[in-house]
Design brief:
350 residues, alpha/beta, Rossmann fold, Glutathione S-transferase Yfyf (Class Pi), Chain A, domain 2, 6-stranded mixed beta sheet, 42% helix
Length: 350
């Protein structure tokens, strides 16, 4: 599978552009603020139904316009598939071949992708909610049932929290049971995902750093599947006082350890960036193995904050993958692939 063509209209500063991609490495060159990241954001939106910058969907519409549209041609097993998203202030329309969807979450899994961006450093130094979001998007691309249980869990938890705040506990058992069923599914899938990522992340780190440090990926669930319901019942009085649910997948976290030391605290800036690259490559490998196909790798600001050796090693690693989208402010002789110039939202092959 690869993204063959993309027609972008009124998305951020991209007014009307059609891009024909290589099935291998595509390089987008331009100064900051010209629209390179906007292109990757459009691809990521088609893949996940969300902006990797955290923007609301209405914020993606170009200034002064009242809609945006993304129309993609995906080649899979020698056949062309079509995927399009249209949004304006009154409606959104999602079409995949002959199917019409109403939810952005239904985009997950159609065009699987992994994105490495400078702001991903927050995965390491930021709040647990950022790390949970990473796991949720990753697993959701591989498992449509995960989205169902995540939505069901959040809705049930909101109802439970309302009952806690109002101190009306007569019907709380109903929502706790729903939370137990869906919460256990989320914990089980997060456990499988983190164990799988752990198996390959250290390998990629060694490949990109030329060192043999041990990199570990550890899942930190707030509770175990066999104790979830018991914890909710046991802590009802405390949670009624605090008006909030204290245990469950919404409190989970994960941590990265380098030679048994916390990356967040002890790693250098360069090491943190290399750890992130290793994590994203491990994510890509897992998606590819599940689909028995190839996902897109996007790298925004290729080589940012990496020294020349790590840039060379990162690029060497990307060459071993399938379709890759790289953005860079300047072209260097070490980067090979189909090249595009991005200037004021205009994208031109060079």
């Amino acid at each position: 599978m690869y993204l063959k063509r993309l027609h972008i209209r009124n998305f951020r500063n991209i007014a009307n552009e059609v891009i024909e991609f290589s099935s291998k490495i595509n390089i987008f060159i331009g100064e900051n603020g010209q629209g390179k990241s906007n292109l990757l954001e459009a691809i990521h939106f088609l893949s996940t139904g969300r902006s990797f910058r955290g923007a609301l969907i209405n914020e993606l519409v170009a200034h002064g316009k009242d809609y945006f549209s993304l129309e993609a041609v995906i080649e899979r097993d020698g056949f062309n598939e079509r995927l399009s998203v249209y949004f304006d202030e009154t409606k959104k329309r999602i079409l995949y071949n002959d199917n019409s969807f109403s939810l952005l979450s239904q985009l997950l899994g159609i065009l699987p992708s992994v994105l490495l961006a400078p702001q991903d450093l927050q995965f390491i130094i930021g709040f647990p909610a950022i790390r949970r979001r990473f796991l949720n998007v990753h697993i959701a691309q591989c498992d449509p049932l995960y989205v169902y249980h995540l939505t069901r869990y959040i809705k049930a938890m909101k109802h439970r929290n309302t009952l806690l705040k109002e101190k009306k506990l007569n019907t709380i058992d109903i929502f706790e049971k729903q939370m137990e069923i869906s919460g256990n599914y989320l914990i089980e899938q997060r456990t499988k995902a983190t164990e799988s990522l752990h198996q390959s992340i250290s390998q990629y780190y060694c490949q990109m750093s030329s060192k043999h440090d041990q990199l570990e990926f550890k899942y930190l669930p707030s509770c175990k599947t066999d104790e979830f319901l018991e914890l909710m019942k046991k802590n009802r009085a405390k949670e009624t006082f605090l008006k909030s649910t204290l245990y469950g997948p919404h409190r989970d976290d994960f941590q990265l350890m380098l030679d048994h030391k916390l990356v967040k605290t002890f790693a250098s800036e360069g090491q943190k960036r290399t750890v992130l690259s290793a994590l994203k490559f491990a994510e890509l490998k897992r998606i590819n193995s599940i689909y028995n196909d190839v996902a897109i790798l996007g790298v925004d600001d290729f080589g940012v904050h990496l020294d020349e050796i790590r840039q060379s090693l990162l690029f060497k690693a990307t060459k071993a993958l399938s379709q890759v989208m790289l953005t860079t402010p300047t072209l260097t002789s070490s980067i090979e692939g189909k090249k595009f110039l991005v200037n004021s939202g205009k994208i031109t092959e060079i």
